[in-house]
Amino acid sequence: MYSIGDLARRTGLSVRTIRFYSDAGVLPPTDRSPANHRRYDLAAITRLDLIRTLRELGLDLVTIRRVLADDITMSEAAAFHADALDVQIQVLRVRRAVLRLVAKRDSTTKEMELMHRLVQLSEAERHRLIHDFIDSTFGAVDANPDLVELLRSTMPNLPDEPTAEQVEAWIELAELVQDDDFKASIRRMAAHQAAERAEGDRTGLHHELTTYVRDRVTTALTDGIAPASPPAAEIVDDLVAHYARTFGTADSPQYREKLLTRLEVANDPRVERYWHLISTINGWATAPSLAPVFDWFTQALQQHRAQ
């Protein structure tokens, strides 16, 4: 028979720890000495080794007690604990991502608390935040329904095990859709779309038109053609004519002014950033930036307003 001190020397555990396990009921004494001191046999030493191993693996005393009492099997206990660790790992990854972002931004305590709250939102709460943004910017105007439907159908879906980049993208997106200046910019775009629709423009998102502009201007950028140069005027003529055909009208100085207004109102780089963040959060490939393309087109049209 061994005393608690003997067990401590044999196992390397402290007397205090062994006494705690004994008091918790997971290591009951085998017998008592005449002086009522606890005594343990070899089976107790084996039991203590198992308790130490299970504790090092992170199992709580309640689960260990159930394993030792044969209420659950070791396999069941391991599976339960592995599932619990998955949840803890997910939480720790998110916390790490927030802390790294705080360190990178040199954030204040208030900003850190806000970021922490944002990553704790449920999927439904994240989607509600985006729907509120759409309602506040497009809800009161007759904007392009295809665009509104696209926005509502493309929600940020943060995965169960997000990367630091995805967590950072979600925090930035949540901040963006709550930014008053960005919402005002989107409302101006929505109002402009509504005015165009009132004039008879009921067309869709014009993917083919965007592709045509991208290809034409990318070539100009590659060739080093400046927006104010004579060669740029020929490209502007071609692009304006393409726009006019798409919208069922003709090229004219008045139409060029109208198109220029359309480009200037829509030329907010934060719109493209919005879609980039959605793609990052959802794990999608991000499309190449069109900002340089439409910056060049806008500048070129400013320089070549006349036909």
Please name the defining characteristics of this protein.
307 residues, mainly alpha, Multidrug-efflux Transporter Regulator, Chain: A, Domain 2, rod-shaped
Written overview of the protein:
This protein has 307 residues and is an all-alpha fold. Helices cover 70% and strands 1% of the residues. It is built from 15 helices and two strands. Strands 1-2 form a two-stranded antiparallel ribbon. The longest helix has 32 residues, at 74-105. It is rod-shaped, with a radius of gyration of 33 Å.
Secondary structure blueprint with pairings:
Layout: H1 4-11, H2 15-24, E1 31-32, E2 38-39, H3 42-56, H4 61-68, H5 74-105, H6 109-119, H7 123-138, H8 145-153, H9 164-177, H10 180-198, H11 207-222, H12 230-246, H13 253-266, H14 269-282, H15 291-303
Antiparallel strand pairs: 1-2
Helix pairs in contact: 5-6, 5-9, 7-10, 9-14, 11-12, 11-15, 13-15
> How far apart are the termini?
105 Å
Number of helices: 15
Radius of gyration: 33 Å
Strand content: under 5%
Summarize the model shown.
Among the domains are: 4-72, Multidrug-efflux Transporter Regulator, Chain: A, Domain 2 (Orthogonal Bundle), CATH 1.10.1660.10; 206-303, no CATH class.
